[in-house]
Every structure is written in C-alpha cells, then in structure tokens.
Amino acid sequence: MKRIITLFGVLSLLFSLQFIGGGFEAFAAGPGAGDTFIDHASKGLETFWNFTGFANAHFTNFIMIGVGLFFIFLAIKYDYEPLLLIPIGTGVILGNVPFLAGYKIGLYEEGSVLNYLYFGVQQGVYPPLIFLGIGAMTDFSSLISNPKLMILGAAAQVGIFATFLGASAMGFTPQEAGAIGIIGGADGPTAIFLSSKLAPTLMGAIAIAAYSYMALVPVIQPPIMRLIIPKKDRAIKMKPPRAVSKTEKIMFPIIGLLLTTFISPSALPLLGMLFFGNLLKESGVTERLADTARNSMINIVTILLGITVGASTQADYFLTTASLKIFGLGAVSFMVATAGGLLFARLMNVFLKGDNKINPLIGAAGVSAVPDSARVVQHEGLKTDPNNHLLMHAMAPNVSGVIGSAVAAGILLSFLM
Predict the structure, then answer these.
(1) For the stretch 165-203, what's the b/e string if a residue is b when 16 or more beta carbons lie within 10 angstroms of its beta carbon?
(2) Residue 158's Cα: distance from chain center in Å?
(3) Who is most buried in 134, 144, 338, 380, counting CB within 10 A?
C-alpha cells in the first residue's frame, strides 16, 4: 500500500511539473520572474481543471452513470443477461464520463476510438455476426419435430406491428415507428439492424430498451402468463418430441434460408447468417468454423456491440422526451407480444385433441429472447407441476420467434425505406 501511495505521489508531482515547469525557467530569468511563475502555475492548474470530468460534468451525466451501474447490479446480483448488461452498463458509464469536446474522445466525435468501433453498429455489421453465432449454437430439432409450433413464433410478432401503430399515433415518423416497433420482438441485434437503417438518431434508445426488456424477461413474463393461462391449462403435459434425423437437420437451414429470404429479401443479412451458422453446426464437417462462430467470434462481437451501444447513450443525445416514449412503447410492445403468443396458443388448443394439445405457456416463448423465454416457460410449468418439463417444447416457438422477428424486420424495411 505504501508503494502505491508513493508511486501515485511521484506521478502527481511529475504531472504538475508538466504544467508549471516552464515557470522555473521564468524564475531563473531574473527579478520579477516570480510573478511569471505564479501566473504560469495558475494557468497550468486552470488548464488541468478544465480537462477534468468535474469541470465538464452535468447532472444528466450522473443520471446515466447511475443507469449503467444499475445494469451492472442487475447482471451480477440477479444474473439478468450478464453477457449483455455488463458490457452495456460499462458502455453507459464510458459514454457519460464528462470530457472536453473537440479532442476525439466521445463516441460521437469523428475520429475517436469509440466512433470507429461504433461503425459496426451504425452500418449494421455487428447484428449479422451475432446471428451467425446464434445459428451455430441453436438446435432446431424441437421445431422440426413439431412444425405447427412455428405459428406461435409468428403470433408473438403482433407486438411489433401493434407498437408500430402506437408509435405512429404518438407522432413518430413511419420510419421511426417501424424501428421502435421491433423492440416487441425482444431481439436486440434485429432492433439495432433495423434502427440503423430507419432511425439512426434513435438507435441508442431503441437498443437499450430492447436489451433491457430482454434481460427482464424473468420479471415481465411470469405475471402475464399466470394472468392469461388458467392453472389447469398450465398443467397440460405434452407428448415428447419425435427424434429428428441428421438429414432433416441439414435440410432445414437450406430450406429455411431459401423460403424466408424469398419472402423477405430485406432480412437477408440476418436470416442468411442465421441459417449459414446453423448449417456449419449441422453439416458435421465444419465443426471448427461452427465452434469459432458460437464462441470466439460471438463473444468478441457481443463485447464490441455492448460497449458501443452503451456508450451511445451519451446524456446530451439520449435523455430526451423521445427516449422516454420509446421505453414506454417498448414495455407495451413486449407485453403485447407475450400476450399474443399465449392467446394464440390457447386458440390452437381449441382445434387440437387429446395428447396433441399444447401447454399454452409455451406461447410466451414466441418472443425471440433465446433461451430466456423458454427457461421462464420451464420454470412456470414446474411451479404448476414439478414433473412437467416444457423446455424442449418451448424452444420451438422460441427459435421460430428469432426467425419471425427477422422476417418482420425485413418486411418493415422493405415498406419504409
């Protein structure tokens, strides 16, 4: 400890001499130079003060730093999406440390390091790489074995279009409303991709809202699930999914790629990378590439995306009335999406008989927060019946929700660009 204090003292002294060192030369120059030394020292200290965060701070900076610390707290204390919230929370802090403008420090200053890293967000580079990693780590077996559950992933996207209408009614432009609506899909990369194309100025608020609600899935969804689904329906046991052959697993990403991209070519960067990643996994001959995509690459991109998205919440750009509206609309969007999946699952049971009935809880997994929504379904099912395991069944609408939100983004993009 003494060594650290000593080192800190020496460095502080050297730093001070950097500003006032010129005064010693003036002091040696002769009589009256003492005044010059004092003036020089004062100017040096004033310059030092003007460069500090304390001199440039505004109370809004501390509000946003508090938000960043809160995200980190949620991630560590409650394990809410720590891989996302810790980078984002740290980025929020980095983006709101006060600084003197004009020295290429801030994210919005051209030529700064953060600005270069933010290029991947602005130009939509990071989201497709995230989708590549998701594809390489996703098992579509449960969806292939029970294709009708894909409808639940589509039904949950009602939140996107309902919020689009709500945002339009609140005065946002059609492009901004489309970008805001995608929050209902609970898919952060898709939200970033779409907002980078339709509403770049709102990207920070949209991305933070999307990732915040993704992290709060275990808090938001259970009350809605218990409200909409009666206890007797929550206890329904589904028959085990059938075994899926290797051929089916290989054919699914190829057919899925062609079908979805022909329907929505605008979503090609997302869906193309998603199914490509899954083909790397299922082909059995590119394990090294699949391993890189689902581990090293997605981890690196997640760090860069989290830090830069967090830093984009610089207080003077982020704390606006529009941001508050976006957070409110995002919450409504997410709840509507969850309710849409649950209600459609109940509707499906009207037409299903015997052991073909589905547990309506799995409809909540139609939002594309993979795999958190499926885990919440599993947890709620076990609370009703400790022997009722729904995780594998819930993964079907969960992964179809990823596809559904990307298709919805492509449709919005094609209509609003």
Answers:
(1) ebbbeeebeebbbbbbbbbbbbbbbbbbbbbbbbbeebb
(2) 20
(3) 338
- Which residues lie below 8 Å from residue 358, measured CB to CB, with a gap of 6+? 149, 236, 238, 345, 348, 349, 352, 393
∠ Cα 213 218 223 (to 5°): 100
Half-sphere exposure of 198 (CA within 13 A, CB side): 29
Closest CA to 266 of 139, 143, 166, 128: 128
- Confirm if 364 and 225 have CB atoms less than 8 A apart: yes
In this predicted model, what pLDDT tens digit does every residue of 361-417 receive, in sequence order? 999 999 888 888 999 999 999 999 999 999 999 999 999 999 999 999 999 999 887
* Burial class for 147, CB neighbours closer than 10 Å (0-12, 13-18, 19+): exposed
* pTM confidence score: 0.86
**Contact indicator for 195, 203 with CB cutoff of 8 Å:** yes
Instruction: Pull the structure tokens for residue 320.
Output: 């606006």
Strands, E assignment, 92-145: none
Please name the residue that has the structure tokens 């409650």: 78
| Distance from C-alpha of 367 to C-alpha of 180, rounded to nearest angstrom | 16
